[in-house]
Amino acid sequence: MGTPPYTVVTGDRPWPARYTFSPAVRVGNLLFISGTTATDENSQIVGRGDMAAQTRQIFRKFERLLAAVGASCDNIVQTVDYIVATENYRATADVRREFFKHAFPTATGVIVAGLLREGALIEISAIAVIPGPST
Amino acid sequence: MGTPPYTVVTGDRPWPARYTFSPAVRVGNLLFISGTTATDENSQIVGRGDMAAQTRQIFRKFERLLAAVGASCDNIVQTVDYIVATENYRATADVRREFFKHAFPTATGVIVAGLLREGALIEISAIAVIPGPST
Amino acid sequence: MGTPPYTVVTGDRPWPARYTFSPAVRVGNLLFISGTTATDENSQIVGRGDMAAQTRQIFRKFERLLAAVGASCDNIVQTVDYIVATENYRATADVRREFFKHAFPTATGVIVAGLLREGALIEISAIAVIPGPST
Fold first, then answer.
1. B40 to chain A nearest CA, in Å?
2. What is the pLDDT of residue B111?
3. Which residues of A touch B105 (CB under 8 A)?
4. Buried b (16+ CB within 10 A) or exposed e, A28-61
5. Complex ipTM value
6. Residue A117 CB neighbour total at 10 angstroms
7. B5·C75 Cβ contact <8 A
8. Can you give the CATH number for the domain in which B77 is found?
9. Which residues in chain C have Cβ-Cβ distances shorter than 8 Å to B32?
10. Nearest CA in chain C to A110
11. Is B13 contained in some domain?
């Protein structure tokens, strides 16, 4: 069947075979991370109605993916926030301070008409840089 | 006039000079692909009212661009789906299985307020990895 | 505290410490640029009600960031336009011709439900390629 020219990164959780996307893929020194909502291991939204709590859950999921390649949120160079409401969006800045300890990545934030996951107030995608040889 | 520090990739179709963007550009081992709708060579939308058919047409257009650099959809590492309705969005997962044969790239999917192309239900942008020396 | 695995690029303007994102970051030969609106140095929108003027201001801000790494808009390989209305969007193509002199980058353009900056009609993010050794 051949192999893809990149490495799929799933972190420490099983990844359902029915999904037609990977949570993250590594190519060279870049890690692309899929748009992520604040779901937990049971696919339930954490922090219903609380955008800051949802953002924290998303960054925790990023950390698990990044840890699998020896990195942390400090390796993130780009985030894109897709939000469905503006209330409490400012509170997500404090969550960024919790996870980005050395500097801040670039950011884009836009208000969308909706997110696919019911109950999600925010979805974030990211790109990270992973120093060292690619696996 | 100088030359850009990247290679424009247009595939096997002529690209209208009036457009102020390129369908794809290569830099090093990355290929950036513009947001693409399901238009055909006559700029008509293929698969009106059918999101899965539109997605298939978009991936076919990606394949033509990727073939021009010796690659296929299996080289895609990131897709971003911008959709205007959620009906039948699940059907696009089956289209992904048609084109991604070895593994799945990352994905982000959001509902936008509108797309610029009349009749388009979905627009997809992508990034691919192209092994081997840059041209 | 450690250092991030990338270089923050702020151009020739002071960057407020309260912001939890960087205007641009460089990693290897790529420069990621944050989603940018047409604000001036006093955080006021330039070109109220005029999408082309706002686009011009955004590209001028890109030029300042790119100049800081010895580059120009001709180094941009990807733009993503998030717009809140379609009137006069075509006029932004002429602005692209002013700034992209040798070739055109890829582009994605979508209509969003809103932008965070009051008065902003368009927000653009970008990725550029910076030849030569990373700093």
1. 25
2. 98
3. 6, 21-22, 25, 32
4. bbbbbbbbbbbbeeeeebbbeebbbbbbbbbbeb
5. 0.95
6. 16
7. yes
8. 3.30.1330.40
9. 77-78, 105-106, 127
10. C115
11. no
Of A20, A23, A32, the CB nearest to B78: A32
Average pLDDT over residues B39-65: 97
HSE-CB of A9 using CA atoms within 13 angstroms = 29
Residue A45 contacts residue A38 (beta carbons within 8 Å): yes
The tens digit of pLDDT for each residue in B13-36 reads 789 999 999 999 999 999 999 999
Residues of B in contact with C101 (CB under 8 A): 1-2
Inter-axis angle of helices C51-67 and C91-99, to 10 degrees?
20
Which run of H or of E encompasses A51? helix A51-67
- Both tokens of residue A129? 């840089």
| Cβ pairs B/C, distance under 8 A | 92
Q: Enumerate the β-bridge partners of residue A33.
A: A24, A126
Average pLDDT, chain C: 94
A113 in a domain, yes or no?
yes
Q: What is the pLDDT of residue C135?
A: 46
Residue B65 lies in a domain: yes
Give the number of domains in chain A: 1
Whose CA is closest to C4, among A36, A105, B119, A106? A105
Domain of B55? 23-129
Say yes or no: B28 contacts chain C, CB-CB below 8 A.
Answer: yes
Helix, strand, or coil (residue A98): helix
Which residues numbered 29-68 in A keep a CB inside 8 Å of some CB on B?
Answer: 32-35
Question: How many Å is the Cα radius of gyration of chain B?
Answer: 15
Of C74, C97, C103, the CB nearest to B22: C103
Integer Cα distance of B113 and A110 in angstroms? 11
- Residue C52 within a domain: yes
**Dihedrals phi, psi of C77, to nearest 5 degrees:** -110, -20
User: Does C111 sit within 8 Å of B113, measured CB to CB?
Assistant: yes
Q: Tell whether B19 lies on the interface with C, counting CB pairs under 8 A.
A: yes
Residue C99 backbone phi and psi in degrees, to 5: -100, -25
Strand partners, B24: B9, B33
B17 touches chain A (CB under 8 A): no
> Given CB atoms, is A111 within the 8 Å cutoff of chain C?
yes
Subunits with at least 3 CB pairs below 8 A relative to chain A?
Answer: B, C
